[in-house]
Design the sequence.
């Protein structure tokens, strides 16, 4: 993203649940795996959020906005 949009990866929050997301999760400033995600993705993540059906993305965005994530 830095080369394309000028955004440093430390300023990117990425969510994923599949094995194909693990690289993105690992390289993002805040990498978040879904609770129902694959083990490989969870291991790459800094945080694990609630399942997709439990609004896990919204949950973590709110935690970030509330200053609860590093």
Sequence:
């Amino acid at each position: 993203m830095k080369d394309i949009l000028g955004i440093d990866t430390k300023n990117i929050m990425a969510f994923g649940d599949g094995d194909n997301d693990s690289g993105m999760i690992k390289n993002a400033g805040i990498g978040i795996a879904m609770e129902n995600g694959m083990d490989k993705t969870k291991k790459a993540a800094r945080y694990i959020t609630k399942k997709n059906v439990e609004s896990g993305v919204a949950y973590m965005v709110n935690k970030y906005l509330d200053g609860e994530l590093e």
